[in-house]
Amino acid sequence: MKIMVAVKRVIDYAVKIRVKPDKTGVETQNVKMSMNPFCEIALEEALRIKEGGMASEVVAVSMGPAQCVDTLRTGLAMGADRAIHVDATGPLYPLSVAKLFKALVELEKPGLLILGKQAIDDDCNQTGQMVAGLLGWPQGTFASKVVLDKEKQLATVDREVDGGLETLCMDLPAVITTDLRLNQPRYATLPNIMKAKSKVIKKYTPQELNIEIKSDLEVLQVTEPPKRKAGVIVSSVDELIDKLKNEAHVI
What we know:
This is Electron transfer flavoprotein subunit beta. GO terms for molecular function: electron transfer activity. Belongs to the ETF beta-subunit/FixA family. It is found in: Mitochondrion matrix. By secondary structure, this protein is of the alpha/beta class. The protein has one domain: 3-Layer(aba) Sandwich (Rossmann fold), CATH 3.40.50.620. Helix content is 27%, strand content 26%. The chain contains six helices and eleven strands. The chain has helices spanning 37-51, 68-78, 94-108, 127-135, 190-196, 237-246, and strands at residues 2-6, 9-11, 33-35, 57-64, 82-87, 112-116, 139-149, 154-161, 164-171, 174-178, 202-204. Strands 9-8-7-10-6-1-4-5-11 form a nine-stranded mixed beta sheet, with helices on both faces. β4, α2 (68-78) and β5 (82-87) form a beta-alpha-beta unit. α2 (68-78) packs across α5 (190-196) and α3 (94-108) packs across α4 (127-135). The longest helix has 15 residues, at 37-51. The chain is globular, with a radius of gyration of 21 Å.
């Protein structure tokens, strides 16, 4: 079985986000970029499944500008067998990404598609559900545990819900989106980083996949959240209770 994994290039989680002066978006020039943390978890899970003998190949996929190749190199260094880059300029919204994944799935024929539940740049949490709907595949979202049955071609997924845990049993092929507690991603070793630099990354364009990139969304303005007021020190519990009653709702 082949596993396809989505890996997105995002602003590193440790970087302080700055809004552009013209308020058209956030600043990405000269800013450290890295693989989306939830995508790292998705890739780690795919690699563990392969190491357990349940898959034969792991294919990492990234969509966006040419710099996405760096993210794919990281995926290859972690252990992915191949990488695919869909070279697209401009913003990519979840439905467009889902359509591109559907086209790639039809070309590659994977038995399992694993994505992070969301990306930390937009927090949309939509792509996995949309691509499952387009493909007509069962989906297990917010996975905190994944168990595959190779003989029965089934996937059992424990997923986190408001009331606790829900267990789903799905026929393969399927779409799984990963939650934070599924695993701890590995670090890429230096020898694997060097080997990844020489690996060929297959490229497609949306036009080659017969997908038109468009969106019904328009970003009007990006602004920073209002700054919080400075805290105050109270001298007694009674004063604290009074402030909580009378001032806690004031922004």
